Structure formats: structure tokens, C-alpha cells
Amino acid sequence: MQFFIQNMAPIMFAGLIVFLLMGFPVAFSLGACGLFFGFIGIELGVLPEPLLQALPLRIFGIMQNDTLLAIPFFTLMGLILERSGMAEDLLETIGQLFGPIRGGLALAVIFVGALLAATTGVVAASVISMGLISLPIMLRYGYDRRLASGVIAASGTLAQIIPPSLVLIILADQLGRSVGDMYKGAFIPGFALTAMYAGWVIVLAIFRPKWVPAMPVEARTFREPNGSGGLPSLLVLTAITVALAITFAENYAKVVSWWTGTETTTVAFDETLVVSMCLGVLFAFLAAVLNKVTRLGLLSRMAERVTFVLIPPLLLIFLVLGTIFLGIATPTEGGAMGALGALTMAFVRRRLSFSLLKQALNTTTKLSCFVVFILIGSTCFSLVFQGVDGQKWVEHLLTGLPGGAIGFLIVVNFLIFFLAFFLDFFELSFIVVPLLAPVAEKLGIDLIWFGVLLGVNMQTSFMHPPFGFALFYLRSVAPTKEYTDRVTRQPIAPVTTMQIYWGAVPFVLIQIIMVGLIIAFPGIVSSGLDKTEKIDLDKIQQQMNKDLGQPAAPSGDAKPEALPQPGDADKSDAAEQKKLDELFGAPKK
Predict the structure, then answer these.
(1) Residue 476 near residue 196, CB atoms below 8 Å
(2) pLDDT tens for each residue of 251-277
(3) Residue 447 host element (H or E)
(4) Tell me: the pLDDT tens digits for 457-486?
(5) Do residues 78 and 162 touch, judged by C-beta distance below 8 A?
(6) Are 391 and 381 in contact (CB under 8 A)?
(7) Contact in structure between 16 and 33 (CB atoms under 8 Å)
(8) What is the C-alpha separation between 76 and 88, in angstroms, rounded?
(9) How many CB atoms are located within 10 Å of the residue 491 CB?
(10) Distance between start and end Cα atoms, the chain
(11) Which of 56, 143, 397, 496 is deepest in the core (most CB within 10 A)?
């Protein structure tokens, strides 16, 4: 019994693993394990009885957490956009744009996946949409099945790391950090990962051209009357837009100084990027509208189509992320504006119906309840686990690793990568992250950087064969039997489960490389954060003394004055009395 009392924390953690392996739902496993060991601890005298009385207060605290309100808002926004046909229009347009080059369809899927990630934040919606729309087209034109499956699943999982990601909201809440800072830190890694996916497709286009063929001429529908693709005018419009955005970004600090009336020398990179992008997008949209209304004929059909299809999601990105990065809105308020913007876009496109709204609200409610129940279970477990000094056990276990902070990061990432085979990111965030955060903070690791690192690693949980959820989503929409293509009338072989698994492997390796790059180059994350200005207290004190007409305080390099000694007050009083006697004469005795 004494052994059980002294080792209750590891026994409790092992009990949770047993509950999970038996197949119980995670939320109920956490709650049952916490209550079971809580009652045992009270009976053995390890835990005080009033400890469990704090549980209702913690649960009410969950319900009052404003940060978690962003989850249903962003989920609703993503589902409305996915069901309103935005993904279909994007894939069709970008596919026609990139189709003439080898690997163009795969590049279009990656680009649209990143755009959907920045607007929806929901992996399931992205993977299913692109699987239904782009997979038949890629199979029709002879793409390798493994590559087609892998690129769709990997592009869908970009919603895990590109803001507004649900996992970043959960990680920020568990780490006790700002969601806005977490979004800023993940901005560069998310799009760097997108570039690495595109780089892999380009490498295959060079060395395995048969895997990624170009679209045939007859499949390119957006063509000019003379038969050309209309790309020159699009390139000119893009060049002018990019040049305008870059020029504005270089002078953005001066614009901020003029606008605020205070001199500003540097502005955060993410803020500069979002505002400059918004200006460029607005210019391109106005140019396309002017060309269409006046019928000048300066822009081709392709240029107009690309502009009008890309503007709504880019506008929604600015509405959500732009207001968060600029400090105008909190993530919860940004999510509310995004949901309203998605409803408005669906209404304008005449695709908003009662059945669509009902389906989106139903799915949003299910996901939100799922998150809250897991959070309640994890709160019950963590309360008892902390009561039996579980945090100290984990801290001693991890701080004793060789290599200090680097050793800790390597072990933690291996642990997350292994657990991701069996648990999804919600479960990892609520079970593992609260145990790791105190140790990381004690080792001097910035928790924003640590959260983004874990977010990139948890992204692999959607891609792991054989339990990756993105692979299951793709399997549900990929053809399982041979069918006849509706355009070419040719028989198309099915996509096997093993082809989906093997297609995911290269992209999982790319995600692991990204984890290594973040550890090796922390600036990938920290460069996106606002720079904290160092405050020189000595200069402030000197300025205050100058304003008050007092002698300047000694600088930090000057020797400090000696501390007052006993009897100094008496000497000071005697000296003061002597000065008074000299001025007014000594009193007569």
C-alpha cells in the first residue's frame, strides 16, 4: 500500500492509458480515471477531501472561457464556405490556371488547400471537398494515384497550422498564451510548409514527369476567342499588384507614423503583410471591375475569372486574420466576423438555404460539444493528477534528460509523433500539453514557440498511416471500384487504401523536416511575433529628474551610493541645525 501511495501519479497515468486502450471514449476515460483515483486518494489520505469540491468551479470556468467561443465560430465559417461551393470554384479556376504545366493540378490543390486553410480552419471540410472535386480530375488525366492521394490529404491538413486553426486555439488556451500571438507565430511556418509541399511536386515534375502530366489542350476551357489562354494580361495585372503591395510595405512604417501622429520606425511583419496584401487585392479587384463595366478588353477571361474567384476568400482572410493581427478584434470577435462574412458570401452567391444552415449548425454543435466534454474530462483528470504531485513527477522525469532543453524537445517531439498514431490533436492538446508546458517554461523555452512546434508535429496525426483522420476522410470519397469517367468515357481504376497510405509518407517526412527546421532555426516562429522593446529605466529616471528640475540620477555604470548606516540620521540633523544657527544666529542659552 505504501508503494501505491508513493507512486500514485505514474499509476494514475498508466490507468488512463489502460482506459484508452480498452476503447472507451477519451472524454469519459479522462473523467472516470480522475474521479476513480480521486476517491482512492481521499480514502488513503493522500488527497484532502475539499479538493474535489473545486471541480464544479473549474467546470464553470470552462463555460466562462471566452477564448473557446472562437471554436464554434470558426467551425461554422468553414462549414458554410465548404457547402457554398467556394472550394469548387477555386479548384476549377486555379486548376485551369496551372493545368498547362506539368504538376499544375497538384500545385492547384496545394494552393487551394492553403487558401481553404486560411478561411475554414477545418481539415475534414478541406480534404473531403478537394477529394470530391480534384481527385477524379487528377485520375482522369493520368496522375499517379499515390501522389494524387498524398497531395490532397496533405493540403487538407494545412488547416491545422495555418491560422485560423482550431488546434492553435486549443494550444493557446492550454499554454495560457494569447491566441493572436499563436496565430502570428504560426503564420510563417504554415506557408513555409505549403512551399515545401509545392517544392516536392516540382521535383517530381522534373524527375518523374509521367506521374504529373499537364492537362491536354481540349480540357482547358477558359480560352480567348483567338485560342490563347489569356495569361499575359493576368501576368501584367499580377506584376502591377505585387509591385504596388511591395512599395506600400516598404513605406508602411511612414504611413503608420502619418496616421497615428507618432514616429514609427518598425511595424510587425504580419501586420505589414496583411495590410499590403489587402491593398494589392483591392487594386486588382477594382481593375477587374473597371474592365468589366467599361468593356475595355484589357483583361482576359482568365484574368477576370481568377480575380473575381480569389477576391472573396482573400477578403475573408483579411476580415478575420487582418483584424486579429492589427489588434482591432480578438480571435473570438474575428471568428464571429468570419462566420457572418461566410453567411454573407453564401447569400450573395445564392447558395444559402435552410438545409445548408441546418447541416452546418448541426455539425458545429457536435464538434463544440466534443471539445467541451474532452476539456471537462481533462480538467477532472488534471485536478487529481496535480493533487498527487503528478506535475512534479513529470517535471523530474523530463528535466533529468541529457542535453537540457534540446534533449527535452527531441524526446517530446518523438513522444507526440508516437502518440499521434493513436490520438488526435484534441486529445493530445488536453492530455499531454498541460503536462509538458510547466517543464518547458522552467527550461526557459518560449511557450508561443513551443506551441507552434507542437502544432506542426500534431499535424502528422492526420497523416499517419494507418489511423490518420485525413486518410480516412479521403478514403470515404475516393473511388473503391472501377468506374467510367464522364468526360473521357474511359474506365478508371479504383484508388486502393495502400496507395493512399504510401502517398501520405513523403508528406509526413516533409512535416518532420519542418519540425527539425523550427528547432534549428527558432526565428521561423519568433520573427512573426511583435518585437518587445527594451525599457531603459536609467534613462527614464534621468528624464523624470530633468522634467522635475532635480539633479540627474547616476547612470547604471556609476557606483551606487552607500547604504545608510546607524547614526547617519543624527549627523544629518546636527548639520542641518548648524546651518540654521549660521543663518539666524544661535539661540541664547
Answers:
(1) no
(2) 888 888 888 788 877 777 767 877 888
(3) helix 447-458
(4) 888 878 877 777 788 888 888 888 888 877
(5) no
(6) no
(7) yes
(8) 18
(9) 9
(10) 86
(11) 143
